[in-house]
Amino acid sequence: MSETALSTPDVPLGEPPAPAGLADFADLARAVLPPEVWDFVDGGSGAETTLVANRRALDRVGVLPRVLRGVPTPRTDARLLGATHALPVAVAPMAYQRLLHPDGEIALAGAAGAAGIPYVASTLSSAPIEEIAAAGGTVWFQLYWLRDRGLVTDLLDRAQAAGCAALVLTVDVPILGRRLRDVRNSFAIPPHVLAANLPAGRDDLAHAATPGVSAVAAHTGEVFAPAVTWADLDWLRERTPVPLVVKGVLDPRDAVRAAESGADAVVVSNHGGRQLDGAPASAAALPAVVEAVAGRCEVLLDSGVRGGVDVLRALALGAHGVLVGRPMLWALAAGGRAGAETALSLLAGEFRDALALAGCADPGEARDLRTTVE
Ligand SMILES: Cc1cc2nc3c(=O)[nH]c(=O)nc-3n(C[C@H](O)[C@H](O)[C@H](O)COP(=O)(O)O)c2cc1C
């Protein structure tokens, strides 16, 4: 190499290259976040076997591309829950987003709205549901069943009044999984990050740092109802005028039961490996669920989705769409709303390319692709 080449590099020294894919945001986020916040986001439960299995299972799915089908630029838009969205993708519900960036949920909901995809607002959002709904496009509300039924009805009324287009009941958190990184870090939510949808003071335990204790686990143990039943789902279906989604099923029998109870969709999910360690990867559980529900409701997948090829894989396995979790928090931490917009535009571009390379004109055709498991 000549001396001139050495002294005139193409990329200015010290400037990190722009993210080329969602995974690149992980390093950027890690560099700016306090280690215990990184661990809260990144970690899984127990030995993190399920967390690792999620990625491994997606990587093992081979998609057989079709050829000579004369596809020009594929369309990426898809219908989920009776509405058309720019992608068969929604931003997964994730608690306490002001941990990542001062603009938290407002930034991420805004970015999802700009990208034309739904944003799912967590019960444990650090901004009120009314403000999130005003900032976003299509916003779905995620409900954790609380011990205080009055609080549940209050949240449902507020979500409805705010215009939330669907209700997502999360059913895989009877108690919080043992997230050992949080235990080791004695992790507590900082005082400025509030559970803004709960009455003042109802999140005190989440902020109470105690050696050897996850304050998040202590708080959820205090406020979440541990013994929710199918009768509660029936009650919820009865009083919910918008589409109802049941998030966190892996057993096909539960998926069928949810559909029979009037769920419009199920999310095949192990909560990103944060609940039962030892649960299967969601991509491994997906095909049996798709087969069992046999079109009675839509089937979404989350846990481990890291790019457009994973969206294609999920569709090829029979899903109607996916939720994307941690990568959106990485992008939020790295660059606020602009970071999240960049991440979503990368995801959209990757998905469009994946469809083109697989010979599919639209997401519907991707559901007809065949797969191998290596
Ligand atoms: C930091 C964090 C907070 C989360 N909070 C919630 C929540 O409040 N409600 C919920 O239903 N799921 C929650 N989840 C689970 C996600 O909705 C989703 O199932 C999971 O993140 C998907 O896996 P992925 O992160 O590998 O994409 C959370 C996940 C993370 C990483």
Detail the topology: elements first, then pairings:
Blueprint: H1 3-7, H2 24-32, H3 35-42, H4 49-60, E1 61-64, E2 78-80, E3 83-85, E4 89-91, H5 104-115, E5 119-121, H6 129-135, E6 139-143, H7 149-161, E7 166-170, H8 180-184, H9 215-223, H10 230-239, E8 244-249, H11 252-260, E9 265-268, H12 282-293, E10 298-301, H13 308-316, E11 321-324, H14 326-357, H15 363-366, E12 370-373
Parallel strand pairs: 4-11, 5-6, 6-7, 7-8, 8-9, 9-10, 10-11
Antiparallel strand pairs: 1-12, 2-3
This protein binds flavin mononucleotide.
Helices, by number, come to 15
Total E-strand runs: 12
Quote the beta fraction. 5-15%
| Order of strands in the sheet with most strands | 4-11-10-9-8-7-6-5
Unreliable stretches covering 5 or more consecutive residues: 1-9
The largest β sheet comes out as:
8 strands, parallel
InterPro entries: Aldolase_TIM, Alpha-hydoxy_acid_DH_FMN, FMN-dep_DH, FMN_HAD, FMN_hydac_DH_AS
Cofactor: FMN
Keywords: Flavoprotein, FMN, Oxidoreductase
Organism: Micromonospora thermarum
What does this structure look like?
Residues 1-9 have low confidence and may be disordered. This protein has one domain (19-63, 76-369): TIM Barrel (Alpha-Beta Barrel). 42% of the residues lie in helices and 13% in strands. It has 15 helices and 12 strands. The protein has helices at 3-7, 24-32, 35-42, 49-60, 104-115, 129-135, 149-161, 180-184, 215-223, 230-239, 252-260, 282-293, 308-316, 326-357, 363-366; strands at 61-64, 78-80, 83-85, 89-91, 119-121, 139-143, 166-170, 244-249, 265-268, 298-301, 321-324, 370-373. Helix 11 packs across helix 12 (282-293). With 374 residues, the protein is an alpha/beta fold. Strand 6 (139-143), helix 7 (149-161) and strand 7 (166-170) form a beta-alpha-beta unit. The structure holds flavin mononucleotide. Flavin mononucleotide binds next to strand 11. Keywords: Flavoprotein, FMN, Oxidoreductase.
